[in-house]
Amino acid sequence: MTPADLSLTVLHAVRRAVGEGALRAGTRVPERVGIERPRPGGSGDWATNAALQLAREAGMAPLGVAQVLRPRIAEAEGIERVEITGPGFLNITLADRSRHALVRDVLDKRERYGHGDALRGRAYRLVHPGDVRATVLAEAVRALLLAQGAHVHDERHDDPRHDAHPHATRPETVTLRPLPAAHDVAALGPDAARWALLRPAAHDRALAPDGLLVQSEANPLFTVRYAHSRARALLRNAAQLGIAPAYEEDVAAPRLLAALGDHPAVLEAAARHRAPDRVARHMEATADAFLGFQHTVLPLGDEKPSAAHRSRLALAEAAGTVLAGGLALLGISAPDYL
């Protein structure tokens, strides 16, 4: 279950509560509610501040709204339990079958996992000064907006006019002015150059070329691409052993499962904030979680292949898929061999 799915589940619970009279009639149901990882002191897989968001309009204390929503959210498929913490945060623990659904969702959608329609019906026109960093940033922002269902008009460098399109929504002009690169990154090649320009936030300096071609863990780009290549290598090695990926039982890999589950929310936030650096940072976190898990995937020594190995292999394939998809949105290749 993705953050977008959970947001819909919470909204459905709100509508039920209003319809059943548990919340004041006329309480406006928001278009979306925030879903995030639990804060310190929280519990579960996800948390929402929906009760705090609704309290004033419902005419109730946030804790009271949370108590109304808790059983209605807990009844939803894929939810194991819902707890209330602090002034009214709802902490949600997913059932194991939801983790199965997460892995299946990644493997079904492949590199399009995390793409959605959060910005469908929205139109944007990107404007930028045309220097190399601004151009690369605009390309990545365009890809992210399209992945969330938005329409993106052709770029006109600092041209204040908008494109005429009689059947489209009037576009919102987005001006991209990242801090220009202080170094010539052309010699790095396209992949390392794009990482140098996109990994820092637009208001920060682009990365210096030093170290971006080094094949070691000190180079985050190498680590991300290496993690993808390791996932592909595990699949090749498993095929030689006659093991096919199939998520049949829950795998004890909380960091990696959390990273995969976060992917759709990261892509949506990166599109809304025009911030490809969020995707780059998430790729680093996903790669780090996968590399800490990869050694458990295949049988060791005389160990016989089992359902656990098939499940771990499916999770490894899902991790490689997410890494490839995230890099693709940044315009960076994900080679099978490094």
Describe this protein with a few key phrases.
three-stranded parallel sheet, 338 residues, mainly alpha
What does this structure look like?
- Helix 1 packs across helix 3 (62-74), helix 7 packs antiparallel against helix 10 (307-329) and helix 8 packs parallel to helix 10 (307-329).
- Mean pLDDT is 89; it is low at 158-167.
- The chain is built from ten helices and six strands.
- The strands form two sheets. A three-stranded antiparallel beta sheet has the order 1-3-2. A three-stranded parallel beta sheet has the order 5-4-6, covered by helices on one side.
- The protein is 46% helix and 8% strand.
- The radius of gyration is 22 Å and the shape is flat.
List the uncertain runs. 158-167
Biggest sheet: strands side by side, in what order?
A: 1-3-2
Mean pLDDT across all amino acids: 89
Structural class: mainly alpha
Task: Describe, in short, the structure shown.
This protein is mainly α. 46% of the residues lie in helices and 8% in strands. Strands 1-3-2 form a three-stranded antiparallel β-sheet.
How do the strands and helices of this protein lay out in sequence?
Layout: H1 3-19, E1 46-48, H2 50-58, H3 62-74, E2 79-85, E3 89-94, H4 96-109, E4 123-127, H5 132-147, E5 151-153, E6 172-175, H6 190-198, H7 220-240, H8 254-272, H9 276-291, H10 307-329
Parallel strand pairs: 4-5, 4-6
Antiparallel strand pairs: 1-3, 2-3
Helix pairs in contact: 1-3, 2-3, 4-10, 5-8, 7-9, 7-10, 8-9, 8-10, 9-10
